[in-house]
Amino acid sequence: MNTYDPQGTTTFDDQGNRMLEPQESDKVVRLRVARLRELGLLGLQRDEQLSGFAAKMTETFQAAVAVVNIFDATNQNFVGAHMQAGGDASSLTGMPKNVGWCPHTLARKKAFPLGNVMAYPRFAGNVLVDEMGAKSYLGAPLIDDTGTALGTVCVVDIVERDWNMSDVNAIKTFAKDVVQGIYHRQGRIALP
Known about the structure:
Blueprint: E1 3-4, E2 11-12, E3 18-19, H1 26-38, H2 48-61, E4 65-71, E5 75-83, E6 94-96, H3 102-108, E7 112-114, H4 121-124, H5 127-132, E8 136-143, E9 149-157, H6 165-185
Antiparallel strand pairs: 1-2, 2-3, 4-5, 4-9, 5-6, 7-8, 8-9
Helix pairs in contact: 2-6
């Protein structure tokens, strides 16, 4: 069984070898994909309501980019995205499932603040660092009422950030609000 250290420092495979990215069991992936299908999220493209959540996140955190991210079997799908300063988020559509910081947030099933991604060699070599000059990340998992981690919400900035508990609590609230928004669309009762 794969093990993931909750501090996000070490991931091991079945033979005890250190891996750089979290690995999920086939069962976890199958359960998430089935749940995404039930909720009408599997195959969802850019969504106006979820992009609205992303816009609120960029405003709240004054961050360069915010994303609502759904994980299917092979990819992260940016179903909601917004960029500050009139940036065009239309090119932000997704990336492979094991790229970036969101896979770690999903595996941890808890908020993940990285105030300076360059301070962690494991996270410094990242496509987001190379392509957009990302310096900081703050994310939280989207966990539904069955305990399934469906995806993440996150903000990425091009400056180092000193994320505090207020920021962590705010990103967790955004994650809960997104899940409630998904339930509302389904005509379901929201989470408490």
